[in-house]
Write a structure and sequence with these properties.
609 residues, 21 helices, GIY-YIG endonuclease, five-stranded mixed sheet, alpha+beta, 18 strands, globular, seven-stranded mixed sheet, 18% strand
């Protein structure tokens, strides 16, 4: 057991980096600290109830520290060491490539537009950085169509004796064989560079002037070319989500589900949205949004030397790091200008953030449901449950209701390809005591498997997941015994303390309850299927509840039409007021006679009995 008291007694209070090592000398975790003694002592505080910290402390065999001259140095050293050692308990960003750029080789007589990645030491004008290679390729393709610039290497350009295919399809002006003058080509290069600088309105204005001049000179063919260029630029402006005159910011949207996280980065430069890219950092169970965002920002912007040149002036996030001021200070010192982290609350910036978060959810969902991910998780599930064969079909059942109202059961189906949404089913639950989840689960499973047995062609699942503990699992098992389907593996999944993901308890009849590690791929797969069943159930429940609430009980009472119903609701303020009204109070409502009041009174009291 690590003797932390004697270690802390001699620990420096200067800034630095600490490395927590396991029994075999492996690095478990690397962290930074403004005050090493205070930060390391916080891990051994008896009041700490963070499961991740508790698990980490149990494996610590020794701690090594590196004292730094400044707090900023500690952040940079932490990034370098995490990148080098990739510790198990750190949030890890796998991608460490430099940003891609668009470069214009202005030193050439006929400049070339090209893709470039790395430090900005290449001769020519660089534009970017772009969040992904795809965004660069799309922009270059667009500039080819509009301004007919060459993309070929100088060796290829110098060897040409006739125009290439790109000229034939209208994507190059043929400077290699002098089909365009140097002055005209230079004008196209200037317009392209203005566009890349975010001055698309200026480009449109210049093209309009050229079109009018060509039209006045009766050169209608040239005027038509300018018209087509303007049309393409207008289409691009219409697709542009970000509509600002200036802007130099990155927007970071975060989504977390089933043990995976996605950070979607939208890059705005010179008022233009250059594109977006999804990152999937490796996270541990119970990592907070602030922890993930803090790790992403430091590792993304500080891990690669080329990135520090392009740190934006503003970073917008929905989950700002707890050490925000420290990170701002380091980013500012590295970029040479003030950098701010903001959590927008209103206006256009909030819309940008919502767009980034929505994209993050979509990217994460696509990642979760890819065939390779599903296959890996299916194999992990087979090992975790000690199944003889790889499951071919998994079904999961969940119940959703509001205090017993409008209960709906769901069934979702997964196979080795992922979710089979065409085979999802919902069940409106009836004839049970409201709020009795066990009876509801029994009814849903019975209805489902009776139907599957009748439809002999329908495939039976290998594994059935039941959202709940032993009572729900026993109810499902009773159904299987009744229908003689005992060969199906039944697993109950009950939520962890505080409903925190990563701490679910698994139940299996004749087995003691057990937990899978927070970083288990099998647990993440179970969470993914369970969350999908819950989403499908709660959507059905809300639809059923809203439909029920739109139907007034007054509609079933003879003699009550729309006018009298409106008068009753206006007089008593709602259906609850009518239900609690006495016979005498009902008689005071305009248009309600004694016999009608008696019918209302009896009907509502029968309903509420």
């Amino acid at each position: 057991m690590f003797n932390f008291k004697s270690f802390l007694a001699n620990l420096s209070q200067q800034p630095g980096v600490y490395q927590m090592l396991g029994e075999q000398g492996e690095i478990l975790y690397i962290g930074k600290a403004r005050n090493l003694k205070k930060r390391v002592a916080s891990y051994f505080n008896a009041k700490t109830n963070d499961p991740k910290t508790q698990a980490l402390v149990q494996h610590i065999h020794t701690i090594e520290v590196i004292v730094t001259h400044s707090e900023n140095e500690a952040v940079l050293l932490e990034c370098t060491l995490i990148k080098k050692h990739r510790p198990r308990y750190n949030i890890l960003l796998r991608d460490d490539k430099s940003y891609p750029y668009i470069v214009m080789t202005t030193q050439h007589v006929f400049p070339r537009i090209d893709f470039y990645r790395g430090p900005r030491k290449k001769k020519g004008a660089c534009f970017g950085p772009y969040p992904s290679v795809l965004a660069v390729r799309e922009t270059i393709s667009l500039l080819q169509k509009i301004f007919h610039l060459r993309t070929c290497a100088d060796s290829y350009y110098n060897a040409r004796t006739r125009p290439c295919l790109l000229y034939q399809v209208g994507r190059c002006s043929g400077p290699c064989v002098k089909l365009i003058t140097q002055a005209d080509y230079a004008q196209n290069v200037q317009l392209a560079m203005l566009f890349l600088q975010g001055k698309s309105k200026v480009v449109v204005t210049l093209l309009q002037e050229k079109m009018e001049a060509a039209s006045t000179a009766l050169n209608f063919e040239l005027a038509a070319e300018y018209r087509d260029q303007i049309s393409r630029l207008r289409q691009l402006q219409a697709r542009q989500y970000v509509n600002v005159a200036t802007g130099h910011a990155d927007i970071l949207g975060l989504a977390v589900q089933a043990g995976m996280a996605c950070v979607q980065l939208l890059a705005i430069r010179s008022g233009q949205l250059l594109g977006s890219r999804a990152y999937f950092p490796s996270v541990l169970a119970n990592s907070t949004a602030s922890d993930i965002m803090s790790a992403f920002i430091t590792q993304h912007y500080l891990n690669h030397p080329a990135h520090t040149e392009d740190i934006p002036k503003e970073i917008l996030t929905g989950s700002t790091p707890s050490d925000q001021d420290w990170i701002e200070q380091v980013l500012s010192s590295q970029s040479g200008r003030k950098v701010e982290l903001h959590q927008p609350r209103r206006g256009d910036k909030l819309k940008w953030l919502e767009m980034a978060e929505q994209n993050a959810k979509q990217s994460l969902a696509a990642r979760l449901f890819t065939r390779s991910t599903i296959e890996e998780r299916m194999l992990a599930l087979q090992q975790a449950l000690s199944l003889a064969h790889l499951p071919a079909r998994i079904e999961c059942y969940d119940i959703s209701h509001s205090m017993g109202e409008a209960a709906v059961g769901s069934c979702v189906v997964f196979n080795r390809e992922g979710p089979i949404k065409s085979e999802y089913r919902r069940f409106n639950i009836k004839d049970i005591t409201p709020g009795d989840d066990v009876a509801a689960m029994r009814q849903v499973v019975m209805r489902r498997f009776e139907r599957l047995q009748k439809e002999a062609a329908a495939a039976l699942p290998d594994v059935v997941l039941v959202d709940g503990g032993l009572p729900q699992l026993q109810a499902a098992n009773d159904v299987m015994v009744t229908l003689k389907l005992e060969e199906i593996t039944l697993i109950g999944v009950s939520k962890g303390p505080g409903r925190k993901p990563g701490f679910e308890t698994l139940h299996r009849l004749s087995h003691a309850p057990w937990h899978l590690p927070g970083d288990s791929m099998a647990l993440h797969f179970i969470q993914q299927i369970r969350d999908e069943a819950h989403r499908f159930a709660i959507t059905g429940h809300r639809l059923r509840r809203d439909k029920t609430r739109r139907v007034s009980v007054l509609q079933d009472i003879p003699g009550i039409g729309a006018k009298r119903r409106r008068e009753l609701l206006r007089y008593f303020g709602g259906i609850q007021g009518i239900a609690h009204a006495s016979l005498g109070e009902l008689l005071k409502v305009p248009g309600i006679n004694r016999s009608l009041a008696e019918r209302i009174f009896v009907s509502l009291h029968d309903t509420n009995s």
